[in-house]
Automatic annotation (TrEMBL):
Residues 10-320 form the Enoyl reductase (ER) domain. The keyword NADP applies. InterPro entries: ADH-like_C, ADH-like_N, ER, GroES-like_sf, NAD(P)-bd_dom_sf, Quin_OxRdtase/zeta-crystal_CS. It comes from Streptomyces spinosisporus. Pfam families: ADH_N, ADH_zinc_N. The keyword Oxidoreductase applies. This is Zinc-binding dehydrogenase. The lineage of its organism: Bacteria, Bacillati, Actinomycetota, Actinomycetes, Kitasatosporales. Keywords: NADP, Oxidoreductase.
Length: 324
């Protein structure tokens, strides 16, 4: 089978198409004949700096849609030929991918395999940020970094559907700002945002800030919170040193900081992830949320997809077409 792997860390050019053995599912796993695979920012971090890469060579890819090829020992409720969408720990950039049965989901009614490939990472993550961790209440305001990206596109719509009083986004360019405004955001700031947030909220700050960037952006997001505000950290796009927060920052205004990682949750509490995923997928199936596929590449063109996302010009979701 074909797989796209990297044998060293570096730019998009280190992604190589290779011939690989078809993987066989172990106990509790299924193998999937991949139709589409989603491109995530985490794939770029894996390729560039070894994020969650246990050893080289490494086949990236955290999510696929397709048909079940084979089921491993002990798997129940899933069968060969069934159309599914799956969170994979890695290995999605290939003709056949393995996934733990706990993170394999039937394609929701009414959705095709192309749309299904956009669901596994972004939808549960966005749902957790708004609801499970962010605990957004009707009327509250929310500030979202990377508002035009995969997670950002869905968070804006989910926050609006949850009755947010105001949904603010931050992006790196004007075209992204226009896109985010079309996807649930009331106001979108380009670049620096702390003063703009204070101005937009009459000096009060926001109730919830969602940060996938880290470093200075994390600090600025913290400084943008209202009294009793919450910040949820869910990434480190800036590759800054890990943040830490203590009493001096938290006590004065009663603010709190939380975190979320879908891959860690999948490994530690798969039942919680399933609940999140089912609730989140229902929001796509009922039309509350849409995640536009703005660029699609053949599997062999994975490096092009990485270049597009890496130049910070992509919006919405990027997909690789594997065996559509
Ligand atoms: N914790 C979790 O469970 C989880 C799950 C999924 C995704 N994530 C994180 O959520 C973020 C979005 O992921 P995605 O796959 O949907 O990607 P994406 O948003 O479609 O694309 C990457 C995003 O990162 C931002 N970005 C790129 N380079 C950056 C840099 N050097 N500094 C600051 N921002 C940068 C871009 O926003 P601008 O160009 O507009 O700044 C862009 O929105 C990523 O940080 C990812 O790691 C976390």
């Amino acid at each position: 089978m074909r797989a796209v792997e990297f044998q060293e860390y570096g730019g998009p050019e280190v992604l190589k198409v290779v011939e690989a053995e078809v993987p066989e599912p172990g106990p509790g796993q299924v193998s999937v004949d991949v139709a589409y695979t989603g491109v995530n920012f985490a794939d770029l971090k894996a390729r560039g700096e070894g994020y969650r890469v246990p050893r080289l060579p490494f086949v990236p890819g955290l999510e696929v849609s397709g048909r079940i090829r084979a089921t491993g020992e002990g798997v129940t409720g899933l069968s060969a030929g069934q159309e599914v969408t799956a969170l994979t720990d890695s290995g999605g950039y290939a003709d056949v991918a393995l996934a733990d049965a706990a993170t394999v989901f039937p394609v929701p009614a009414g959705l095709d395999l192309r749309t299904a490939a956009t669901l596994p990472t972004v939808l549960p993550t966005a749902y957790a940020l708004v609801h499970a961790v962010g605990r957004l209440q009707p009327g509250e305001s929310v500030l979202v970094q990377g508002a035009a990206g995969g997670v950002g596109t869905v968070v804006g719509q989910l926050a609006r559907a949850a009755g947010a009083g105001a949904v603010y986004g931050v992006v790196s360019g004007g075209a992204k700002a226009a896109y985010a405004r079309e996807h649930g955001y009331d106001e979108v700031f380009v670049g620096a945002f702390t003063e703009a947030v204070r101005a937009a909220t009459g000096g009060r700050g926001v109730d919830l800030a969602l940060d996938p960037v880290g470093g200075e952006t994390f600090r600025d997001s913290l400084a943008s919170l209202a009294v009793f505000g919450r910040l949820v950290s869910f990434g480190n796009a800036s590759s800054a040193p890990a943040w830490s927060v203590g009493q001096p920052e938290l006590y004065p205004s009663g603010i709190s900081v939380g975190g979320f990682s879908i891959l860690t949750l999948a490994a530690t509490a798969p039942d919680e992830l399933r609940t999140l995923a089912e609730r989140a997928f229902a929001k796509v199936a009922d039309g509350t949320v849409s995640l536009p596929v703005t660029a699609e590449f053949a599997l062999e063109e994975a490096a092009e997809a990485h270049r597009l996302m890496g130049t910070r010009t992509s919006t919405g979701k990027l997909l690789l077409r594997v065996n559509a």
